[in-house]
Every structure is written in structure tokens, then in C-alpha cells.
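dude i think i finally got it to work??
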Amino acid sequence: MSRTFVSFPIVDFYTTKLQVLRWASRFNTCCFLDNQEYESKEHVYECLVGIGMKRSLSSDSGNAFDSLKKFDSSNNDWLFGHFAFDLKNETENLSSSLPDRIQFPDLFFFIPDIVLELNRDRINIGLFNSNHLDILDQIYSVSTIRQNSSQVKIQIKQKFSQKEYAATVEKLRQHILRGDCYEINFCQEFYAEEVKLDPVETYLMLTDISPTPFSAFYKANDKYLLCASPERYLKKKDEYLLTQPIKGTWIRNRNDIVLDTHYKNELFNSKKNRSENVMVVDLVRNDLSKVCVQGSVKVDELFGVYTFPQVHQMISTVTGKLDPKKDWIDAIASTFPMGSMTGAPKKRVLELIEQYEKSKRGLFSGSLGYITPEKNFDFNVVIRSILYNEGDNYLSYQVGSGITFYSDAEEEFEECLLKAEAIQRVLENKKGIYKMKM
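look at this
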């Protein structure tokens, strides 16, 4: 039986959006993708949600992409799911032995029982049966009262002390000096144990503070991703591919427009950030050329500076035309992991990441998104995110920066803290729901 969509008008977008999120979170599996009302010609949906599980595929690196091709070949419906960072072991023939306390599989995709498309004035409900009105009634029955959890103290720990971090940055600079690599994205984990978290309320707090165009609430059984990402990994529309790597972060001053504009200009003119950005652009151009028609890969925008609630970001846009002999899975496998979260040359920096980082990145630095029945897709880069294993009561967030020979360890550490500011504010929770101690 094929899926049918029925469209219903809505009165209050924000109320309905909250009800959809809360209702979706009751299922064992859901993927709530939220554009947060950013204006962009590249965004197709304001909110797109996959709920429940008709069929699924879970795989770790080894033959994950082949398994996905077999799974996809028998599917002409929607898919939602993720690619985790350690698929690098498959795409680049590497291995990993770092600890992973969150434990998302390397690859997970599901055909949802329910697909919801939500925009400013309508909700479209896609089902395999005719119970569309019943689903709408269930959504509307959900409370819209924001919840206040009892105060919980969360003891945040760091895998790297600032001294250890500085020493590692110096070792990476020496690798660069020897010619092992040009630039490397180096990440560190902040974590907490014995944590009782309200995932929905925590996600709402995170997106209240930092609404971003690739936000997501993602649940796979007892594992959660609460994502406030500003970055697109890869989009496919018909035969065209588009990627928008972020390399370059600068502080904001939201209370002083003149100073904020000055910071924005500083980012645009920063030699270090331009250098990092152009390296990543060259890397993703090379990745796209593996699956695109010869001569079709081009840079549509270089060094674009965009403003988000917490930071200014430097974003470039690269596009190409997919080779008709390749499919959408080839496009992912040839470009993953994304250049903005690795460095150049990719394989060598992935080896150094395994050598010098202390935790598996898991879903962090991976990607979450959807595939339509027409095999179009859009995937984010999982950054600025809280990961939570409810079964083990383990909370984690990771942040990183691009290390070059000219990097200053103290400045890089401060950049990591800047990128984690929204998460830290959520965990500190000025309203008193959570309290974080460093």
C-alpha cells in the first residue's frame, strides 16, 4: 500500500510545531528536522518529521553503504536517518578503538510510519492508511505548557585539560610543519555521567537560545540527538549536488550593532579563516569531482559571512552535477566524512584524529537528514549538539576547531568554548532547571 498525504490548515504554527514535537517524541523512533524559519532558497521544508518505524537498517562500518544500497533498492518511500563519523573506517579503509559512550550505530535509516510536513499555515500528514484525522486529533491533544524539571546538578567534565589541549595542538602543528597535513579539525569531548534529562525540554531550550537552520530532535530508542547545527553537509535536487562547508567562526556582540558589524568584517578579512575556508573548499571540490560530471563542479560563493544567534560564520557554496552512472548513496560515500570536520589531506588527518582525540565522535561530525521517494535528499553536519544515552544516563557534547601551523592553542580553546556557548547556557539554565559546574 502506498503512502497518501492529506493537507490540513493550522491556526497557530508555533503551537502546532510544539505539539508535533512532543507527540513525535513519544515514539521509539522519530526525526524532527526544523529550519527555524531561516530564509533560504535551498530549504524545501520548514519542518519535516518522520515518526515510527515501518522498516529500518542499522549497520556499523564495514559494508554499511552496500547494505544501504540493498535496503534502498527495495524502497520507493521516504527515508530518515544518519551517517556517523566512524563510517570513515569504511570510506577511507581505517580503524577505530576510541571509547564511545553514546553508541549510536554508524549508520541508521528508517522508513517512517508517519511523515509530517509542517509550514506556516498547513500540516501535511502522510500515512499508509486513511487515519489522517485521527493522527491530527492525537497531535492536537498534546499539552503546550512548557515543562520545568526539578533542579538537577550536572557535573560537566572535560576529556582534555586546557594544558593537555595546548600540548596536543603543538603536536599537531609539528605534523603540519613536517608536511603530514595542511589543516586538521581537532575536537574535544565534554561529558557528564548519571544524568537525568528531559530531552524535549532541553532541545526546546537549546533552540530558544540558538535557533539554527539545521536544527533537529532525533530519537532512536534510548539515544537522543539534540541538534542546533547551522551547517549543511550535502543536498541533492534532481541531478544537482550542493554543499556548504563552514570554516571560520567569530564572536558576536548582539548589544552593539556597530561592534557586531566590525566583528563580521574581521571574520571576512581574517587571513587564518580564509586560509582554512579555501582549503576545505578545495577538499570538497575534489570529493564532488569523484561523482560529478567532469567540469560541472564550481564554487558558487567563496567566503560568505552569515550571522547566527551566537556567532558569525564563514560559509562557502560548492555545486556539481551528479554523474548519471552514480546514485545518491555514491554521492554520500564519496564525500564522507565532510571536509569541514576533517581537514586536508583527508585520509592522513583522519589517522591523526584517531591518534590524538580521546573519544569516538560517533554521531557528532556525522550527518542527519532525509531522502525523498524521488531520491532527493538534504543532510546537515551534526555540530553544536547534545548527545544523550538515556539508558546509561550519559550526556556528551563535542566541539572543535581547525588547526593550522599558525594556530594559537589558547585562541583555539576559546573558539571551542564559543561554539559550545549555547549548550553551556542550556545546561547552566538561568531558569534553574539545570546547573552545570566546570
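The chain has one domain: 4-144+152-437.
im so relieved honestly
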